[in-house]
Every structure is written in structure tokens, then in C-alpha cells.
Write a structure and sequence with these properties.
The structure holds two protein chains of two kinds.
Chain A (H helix, E strand, L loop, with lengths): L1 H16 L6 H8 L2 E5 L8 E2 L5 E2 L1 H14 L5 E5 L5 H6 L5 E2 L7 H5 L3 E3 L4 E3 L1 E6 L13 E6 L3 H12 L4 E6 L2 H9 L5 E5 H9 L7 E3 L7 E3 L2 E3 L3 H20 L6 H5 L6 H7 L5 H5 L5 H9 L2 H8 L29
Parallel strand pairs in A: 1-4, 1-5, 9-10, 9-11
Antiparallel strand pairs in A: 2-3, 6-14, 7-13, 8-11, 8-12
Helix pairs in contact in A: 3-9, 3-13
Chain B lengths: L15 H4 L1 H34 L29 H34 L4 H15 L3 H15 L22 E3 L2 E4 L1 E4 L5 E4 L10 E4 H31 L6 H19 L1 E4 L2 E3 L2 E3 L2 E4 H27 L3 H9 L4 H31 L11 H13 L2 H30 L5
Antiparallel strand pairs in B: 1-2, 2-9, 3-6, 4-5, 7-8
Helix pairs in contact in B: 3-4, 3-8, 3-11, 4-8, 5-8, 6-7, 8-10, 9-10, 10-12, 11-12
The chains are: A alpha/beta, B mainly alpha.
């Protein structure tokens, strides 16, 4: 009896270990659904709405890939992951891609064996403090208690920042953004630190957002982007060029409103034609339908539309485009050409 | 009379492997062993294959890399430039701290609750029933989170202590501050301290170094010496009592022997208390007992205490009623009967299940991550794995640590069990 239990457990463990295979595109097609790893809830980036439907900037990325691959923007299974579980989820094959405010770093790319497929948000780490505390600079935070999500780059930046400035702090490790928000509002920490975009998104959900200030210092570079496993370059290409398609669409003025019309027949602009599949074979090269980019853009709009509807200045989160403007407008968002 | 037929020929047929009870068990064992080996082989080769597919190797070199993260509660010296191995060590000590505190407190709570549940006082025994059933039947994680939330939400922030007319104030003559970040209590300080000795057995593990406070060692040694001396005095009193029938008065000698040497030593070391003071964002000075530790400790204590209470109750009920009646007949009062007659015998029944409760408590302490207590699961098994991507190595090390710790606890308790169990001669 005892032995049979052990054997059973071994079998299950072995099967689970065998799940990560190479051809992700085939797996996704066979399943009919894209498994996409997102945060456990960060308004504006990825959070379920009142009806339980996931929405947000990162969610839009997942939906665009699902639309490009499966032709259906709703064929996505969203897997909420914490800062600690996300990489294991991706490496083990539990999710096909991560779109989860994840910073592109050397060690994650090289040592953790992931492939970052681009940057969809240029961010930096900031601090939020209650206005009543009267703190105007992060360097005034000597001796403060700081809430910090464990297993993130922000945790390492925090240690570096305080060490470099020779000031002390007391870290309070937390698992999720919701937990950090709760501890911060209860006053268990003097300040909460994460990516500035995340702070803005979190502040937007506070009862009195005006009582809290985000300090001017941005203490790190946090290029956030979607990532996939090493070793399946075809799948990596699909995610990378879906993101590029959304960026290029904004640059060329292709929106969710006019994409159907532009895709109906060849237009005067050859790059638009190549992007939308009315000219050339770009879709087939990716192993997708010719109109993959049309579906991806129709799913949630181009990069600019995704930004404006989820985190832009007209939303409660109110982030300016800043670094995330198109390169033509002084930002860093730049797609290689569709050629 | 020779009705016995010849014994059957001792020839061996393969069918005997299944149908002959002499060989069947061996057949089953061989087949099971082969299957087990095959399964292990498959599991290992599958792991290797998948690691290869991911392009990952298997090595423990990451333990020597700088960790890069800070840990709030550290019993030994640590900063963000120390190695991942050192961070794991800090976590291990934090796990041990909460496990030891939890086991001691859970035993005390459990014994009291178990005895009181048998009380003839209706209210007391019902209250204990409510406690036992309430804690035993609700998941531990809920208690940990609930207690942590109560600590955080119901206690004042450090900044409430500030100002002319503060919203909160320190208690016990301005020596203890209870805040939503933890409780600050006075810390012992020595103005003529003897310093520390650095211990660095580098040949075991290069990250294993720590400082032993000579002051603390001296105090502990003095107390042990005093206790040994008190035992000698008591033995002498026994001898005199056995010889003359009159027991010399020893209590004041014992008190003197216990307190005078320690007192003198403390005076020599210049013992004084350092009080917590509000400075900047937080209190500084004093000892900071974090809410995460308090919540985890309290939850583990109350939860495991409820199980121990049932074990103690079972142990007491297992003792024959005649023992109680005999003790009463000798004129012992109920409290003496419990302490001198019932509990020593009940220990034999209590110890074995108690061991498994200690093991449970130790392993349950890995739920610490829920309240951000930095135990070994949170450092080695959490942040280190996440920053280095060494899931397999980290989890194996973590499993090995808990395995060794559990075996040690179980071994130690078994030695104790052998000393109290019924001696059969």
C-alpha cells in the first residue's frame, strides 16, 4: 500500500515535470486557449472587472497574442501569479507567456533562461508616502519602514539605493500588491515602493488619492515587457512581433476603428499593406494567418489605444505617455520595420 | 503403521512463484522493487532531460553569490552584500527561533487547557472545549492572517506617539511601546561588557560565522553553576533528613545561591536597560519584536496548543481512576494528586503524540510567508530561488533542512521518551 502511494506520487510528479515541451504554438492551437500569466491584480495593468473579466494594459497584450494566434481575443486563460511564482509558472509550462510588469534584466534573460520579447512600458521604481509625513525626497527616508514585494527587482534596487546613500530602513516583505496597499494604508509601513506606474495604479484605487504623494526620485530603470521561455524561438517571434505590430499600428495610424477598412484592400502605404497582410507573406513566415495583425489590432486597439484606455491620462491612473510615447514624438517606443 | 505417503519431489516450477506462498512474497517484493527503481530512474532522467531542454545546469554555486536583498529580522550579522548561503542561514535561525518559542508556549498552553478541560467547573471546562474546537477546526493560515491583521489594524502607528498630546502613549512607565510595526521592549545593555568572540569554522561552510557574546555566556554559565550548587545543597538536606528525620531549612540558602552570583556578575558588567525612544519614523533602541513574529508565534501556539490539550486530556484519562482514589486516600489534595501522581504517569502516553505535534509546529512555521516573517522558506525558498532561478536546488536544500530538523526533534524527544517510559525489567 505504502509503495503504491509512493509510485503514484512519483508518476504524478514525473508527468508534471514532462509538461514543458518545445512547440508552444502547437500546444496553444491544440488547447484552443492561450495561458497567459498576469499579476494577481493591479488596476490598469491586469485586474478582473466587476464581472470577473480581466482587463488592463498587460491583459490587452495577452488578448492581442490570442487574437493573432487563435483568431479569438477571448480565448485566454489568465493565470494570476505573484512576484515569487511567476518564473516557475513560465519555466514549468503552466503559462505560455508572461505579461506581468516584469523587468527585463540580464540575469533573467541569460541565467533564468527566459526570452524578453520587447518592452511595452518603460518604468522606474518610485516611492509613495502619505502627504502628512512631510517627506519630499526618498533620501529623507532614513530609518523608515518600507513595504516591498518579495522576489522582484525592486527589492534589490531598494537595498542598493539605501546602501548607496548610506541610510537605513526596515523592509517589510509582502507577496502581492493588494497586501502592500493594505499594510501601507494601515500605516504599518511609512512608504511603499514599486514601479512608478504600479504606484500610480495603486493610488488610483485609494479613497483619497490626493493624500498620498509619489516622491520625485526614480531610483532604477525598469523596462517592463512580455516574456516567454528560452528555446522556442518561433513562439518568441510571435509574441515579439505581435507587440511590434501594435506599436507599428500606432505609428502608421492604424486603429481598432479603421483596421477593418484598411485591411479590406491594398492601401497606398506598402508598410500598412505588409502589416495587415494584404501584401507579402509576413503572416505565413510566422506560421500564422495572413491577417494575424488585423486581429491583434482589432482585439484591443493599437499600442496607443491600449495605453489610453487602460492607464492613460483620461483614466483614474492618469499616467502620461512620457518615455512611452512613440519615437516620433520623443519617446522610446520604437518598432523594427515590417519588411 | 505407515500411512504417510512419500513427500512430494522438491522440484521447482515457475508457477510456484505466484501460487506458492513460500515464494509469492518474494516475487511481489522483487516486482515492486523493479517498478520503484524504474520510476525513480524515469523521474531522474526526466528531470535531467527537462533541465537540458531549458538549458539549465544543476549546481549550488549560487549560494556563494551576493544575495542583494535585505532581511529585517536577523539574529546574526547580515547585510545585502552577504551571500545567498548566509541569507539562508539567517532564515534558518528565524525558523528555529519561532519553532522553539512555539513549542515551549504550545506545551504550556496545551497542558493547562488539557487539564482545565477535565475540570469539574462547568464554565471552565466548556470554555476550554470552545478553545480546543475553535482552534483545531479552523485552518492555521486563517489564524495567522487574522492575528496579524488584528495586530496591524488595532495598534497605533509610531507617529501617533509624537507631539504634545499624543494619540497613543507607551506603557509600563514609558518603557514598552506597542505599535502596528511590532512591540518595542527595553533591551539589556552592559556598560563594561566583555565583548564578543568571533567564531568562524570556515572549514564547514565559508558563510558560517557568528559572534558569541561573552557577557551572555558568562551569565548562562553562572546560572548553570548556581543550579548545580542548589542541587548539591538539596541532596545534602535529603541526606540529613534521612539520617536524623529533621530537614534543615534550605530555601533562603537556595535563593541566595541563585541570585547573589548572577546579581554580582550583572553589577560587575554594568547591567542597565536600554529603553525604546521615538526617533524619526520609528522607535529606536530597545528590542523590536515584529508583529510578524508575534502573530506567527501566537497562532502556532494557540493552534498546536489545542491539539496538545487533547493529547494531555487523553493521557490523563488513560490513567486508572484507582490512582486518583489512592492518592486521595493518602490525603493528597487534588493539585498535588495531579502534579505528583497523574501527570508523571500520563507523560508516558502523552510524549509520543507530542513529538508529532512538535514536528507539525516546526513544519507549519513555513506558513510564515503569509505575514512576511523571514524564515528559511521566505529567504532560501522564496527570494533566493526567485532571484537566482535555482528552483530545484533551492527546494532540495529546503526539503533537506526540514528533514534534518524534524529527525533531530524526533530523535531528541525519543531519548526523553525512553527516560520517562515504563521501565520493564
Amino acid at each position: 500500500m505504502k509503495k503504491s502511494v509512493i509510485l503514484g506520487a512519483l508518476t504524478v510528479a514525473g508527468l508534471a515535470a514532462g509538461a514543458a515541451s518545445a512547440a508552444t504554438l502547437d500546444d496553444v492551437r491544440a488547447r484552443g486557449k492561450l495561458n497567459c500569466g498576469v499579476t494577481t491584480g493591479l488596476t490598469g495593468f491586469a485586474a478582473p472587472d466587476a464581472n470577473g473579466v480581466w482587463e488592463g494594459f498587460d491583459v490587452g497584450m495577452c488578448r492581442a497574442v490570442a487574437a493573432a494566434v487563435l483568431g479569438d481575443a477571448t480565448a485566454v486563460e489568465f493565470v494570476p501569479t505573484t512576484g515569487q511564482t511567476r518564473f516557475t509558472a513560465l519555466a514549468s509550462g503552466e503559462v505560455d507567456m508572461l505579461a506581468r510588469n516584469t523587468t527585463w534584466t540580464f540575469s533573467r534573460d541569460v541565467d533564468l533562461k527566459f526570452e524578453f520579447t520587447g518592452v511595452n512600458y518603460y518604468d522606474g521604481q518610485g516611492f509613495i508616502v502619505p502627504r502628512s509625513l512631510g517627506v519630499s525626497s526618498a533620501k529623507d527616508l532614513d530609518g523608515a519602514t518600507v513595504c516591498i514585494q518579495t522576489g522582484t527587482t525592486t527589492e534589490l534596487n531598494l537595498a542598493d539605493f539605501f546602501r548607496a546613500n548610506n541610510i537605513s530602513y526596515e523592509p517589510v516583505p509582502i507577496e502581492t500588491n493588494a497586501e502592500g496597499q493594505q499594510l501601507y494604508l494601515a500605516g504599518s509601513c511609512d512608504t511603499y515602493t514599486t514601479d512608478a506606474s504600479g504606484l500610480a495604479a495603486t493610488r488610483a484605487t485609494f479613497e483619497n488619492p490626493g493624500d498620498h504623494v509619489i516622491l520625485p526620485e526614480i531610483i532604477s530603470k525598469e523596462p517592463l515587457g512580455p516574456l516567454v521561455r528560452h528555446g522556442d524561438n518561433e513562439w518568441g517571434d510571435i509574441v515579439r512581433w505581435t507587440l511590434n505590430a501594435l506599436v507599428t499600428a500606432e505609428e502608421l495610424g492604424v486603429t481598432s476603428a479603421n483596421v477593418a477598412e484598411l485591411a479590406a484592400g491594398p492601401t497606398g502605404n506598402p508598410e500598412v499593406n505588409r502589416l495587415l497582410g494584404t501584401e507579402g507573406e509576413l503572416g505565413a513566415m510566422l506560421g500564422l494567418e495572413a491577417d494575424w495583425a488585423v486581429k491583434a489590432i482589432a482585439a484591443g486597439g493599437n499600442y496607443g489605444e491600449l495605453f489610453e484606455t487602460n492607464i492613460g491620462e483620461n483614466t483614474p491612473i492618469g499616467l502620461a505617455r512620457g518615455l512611452n510615447a512613440q519615437w516620433t514624438e520623443g519617446g522610446l517606443i520604437y518598432s523594427p520595420p515590417f519588411r | 503403521m505407515t500411512t504417510l505417503s512419500d513427500p512430494p519431489k522438491p522440484g521447482f516450477r515457475p508457477s510456484q512463484l505466484i501460487y506458492d506462498t513460500r515464494y509469492r512474497s518474494m516475487t511481489i517484493q522483487t516486482v515492486a522493487f523493479i517498478l520503484l527503481m524504474a520510476a525513480i530512474f524515469w523521474l531522474v532522467s526526466n528531470t535531467i532531460e527537462n533541465l537540458n531542454a531549458l538549458g539549465k545546469d544543476f549546481n549550488f554555486g549560487f549560494l556563494g553569490q551576493p544575495a542583494g536583498y535585505d532581511i529585517n529580522q536577523r539574529l546574526i550579522e547580515y547585510d545585502s552584500q552577504a551571500s545567498h548561503g548566509r541569507a539562508a542561514l539567517v532564515g534558518i535561525l528565524n525558523t528555529l527561533l519561532v519553532a522553539v518559542l512555539g513549542c515551549v508556549a504550545a506545551t504550556i498552553v496545551g497542558v493547562i487547557a488539557g487539564v482545565l478541560r477535565l475540570s469539574k467547573n462547568w464554565i471552565v471546562s466548556r470554555l476550554m472545549s470552545v478553545y480546543v474546537e475553535g482552534f483545531r477546526n479552523v485552518p492555521l493560515l486563517l489564524w495567522i492572517v487574522l492575528i496579524f491583521a488584528v495586530f496591524n489594524e488595532s495598534t497605533p502607528q509610531p507617529r501617533d506617539f509624537r507631539g504634545e498630546d499624543p494619540a497613543a502613549s507607551m506603557i509600563f512607565g514609558d518603557t514598552v511601546a506597542i505599535t502596528n510595526r511590532g512591540t518595542y521592549v527595553p533591551e539589556p545593555l552592559f556598560s563594561n561588557g566583555l565583548g564578543d568572540v568571533d567564531v568562524k569554522p570556515g572549514w564547514i561552510f565559508s558563510d558560517l560565522y557568528f559572534a558569541i557574546s561573552i557577557d551572555l555566556a558568562a551569565i548562562v554559565l553562572t546560572i548553570i553553576a548556581s543550579i548545580l550548587l542548589i542541587r548539591l545543597i538539596n541532596q545534602r538536606a535529603h541526606r540529613i533528613q534521612d539520617a536524623t528525620g529533621v530537614r534543615p531549612t534550605t530555601w533562603w540558602v537556595n535563593l541566595l545561591v541563585f541570585f547573589v552570583p548572577v546579581g554580582l556578575l550583572l553589577w560587575y558588567l554594568g547591567f542597565h536597560l536600554g529603553y525604546p525612544e521615538l526617533q524619526g519614523f520609528n522607535f529606536s533602541g530597545g528590542t523590536h519584536i515584529r508583529n510578524s513574529l508575534m502573530a506567527l508565534w501566537l497562532a502556532l501556539t494557540l493552534y498546536t496548543g489545542a491539539f496538545i490539550a487533547e493529547i494531555v486530556r487523553g493521557g490523563i484519562l488513560a490513567i486508572n481512576k484507582g490512582q486518583t482514589e489512592a492518592a486521595f486516600a493518602l490525603g493528597l489534595r487534588p493539585s498535588k494528586t495531579m502534579n505528583l501522581v497523574i501527570l508523571p504517569q500520563a507523560m508516558r502516553v502523552i510524549i509520543p503524540p507530542l513529538i508529532s505535534q512538535y514536528l507539525n509546529l516546526t513544519k507549519n512555521s513555513s506558513l510564515a510567508i503569509a505575514v512576511g516573517y523571514m524564515d528559511v522558506r521566505a529567504t532560501l525558498g522564496g527570494i533566493t530561488i526567485n532571484q537566482t532561478g535555482r528552483e530545484l536546488e533551492g527546494m532540495l536544500l529546503l526539503g533537506l533542512f526540514y528533514l534534518i530538523l524534524s529527525l533531530l526533534i524526533s530523535g531528541g524527544m525519543n531519548i526523553y521518551n525512553n527516560s520517562v517510559k515504563l521501565k520493564e525489567r
